[in-house]
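Final paragraph of the annual report: two paired records, presented back to back.
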Amino acid sequence: MGYTTFDFNDGKVPGNDLVKYSFSKGSYSTTAYSGQTGIYSDVWAPSGANAQVNQTDYLAVFSDSDTIIEAQQNNTFSYFGFDAGALSGGNTLKFFNGTTLIKELTYDILNSIATVGASQHGGQKNGFFEFFSEGTNDTFNKIVISQTEGGGFESDNHTFRVQSVPEPSVTFGILAIGGLFLYKRQNQKLQSAKKST
């Protein structure tokens, strides 16, 4: 289905028929420096690759409300990338498939690989992070962005790769056909071995 990128430049929650954003407390704020999860344009926006000041709107998650991003129409994500700004203790990112936690990333992990220290953020690190699924066993259909301590979790330019999940009967059919080919191939090898003896 390709890649889709959402920014927050219009000051509204992005999304489409494949990706849905929601908030654990139901709504979000647009009042800068309110300490509430919302969409803002201020000094804390994730910086550019060379620590440039970003003056566009971005998503800030505070401890009052998680941001939940879900694949729609029974699809899954195989990729998620995003700009993170001013990383601080308590930044938490969780990937789920249904109710099963696939992976949890915390501030310590993100901060250890972040590459840009921005002076407008007091030297706190920024970076673009990418997460790839390695197979069907680690695809995810929900991402939860949380802030468990003081400060916020600032992000922008959320990029997704959405893929459809095959129907169970289609998957079974593919497995059955694959098994049939394997069976035929094995019989051909056995017959060839018998003829050569």
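The closing record of the year follows.
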Amino acid sequence: MRPAGPTGPGDSVRPPHAPARPGSPAGADASVRPPHAPAWTHPGGAPFAAGPPAPRSLARRLAAPVAVLGGVAAAFAYVGTVDPNEPGHYPVCPLLRFTGLYCPGCGGLRSAHAFVHGDLPAALGANALAVVGYGLFGVVMLLWLIRALRGVPMRLAISPAWWWGIGAVLALFTLVRNLPFGSALAP
């Protein structure tokens, strides 16, 4: 005895209320949408051709970059207000605390504080790599805002070679700032 319903990969059983497929014998009603067909299909189940997406409004295009910029501005405002040079306001770097070695981020808060106050030499002295990062962030934000204004999506794809290069720069910076001749890079 054969079970009711589909039995294999190519088998299908049409429910009695479902319309016949296009090209079926005369008398079949092809104008009724099958119950399993999504709303964006033609009667008979064929999908509509996908057209270009509707353009997004300027406010919606600017929402993400402005939100990121606002968050970073708020963080810089906080660090500019609460001095990291005074003990007790921020946690100590765990690597520095337990090993005595400076990580690539050590001095980053002091650098941001000096940067907010317009003291570029002090910012570079606290963490030169962080100041370079602020500049790169500014360039990426400017590109993102310009592309959002023009309606062009921002895609930042970095190849693995660039990631390895960034990692090598961070490792070299960490090594040099912990050696006696690189003490100028230490915070």
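The mean pLDDT is 81. This concludes the annual technical report; the extension proposal builds directly on these records.
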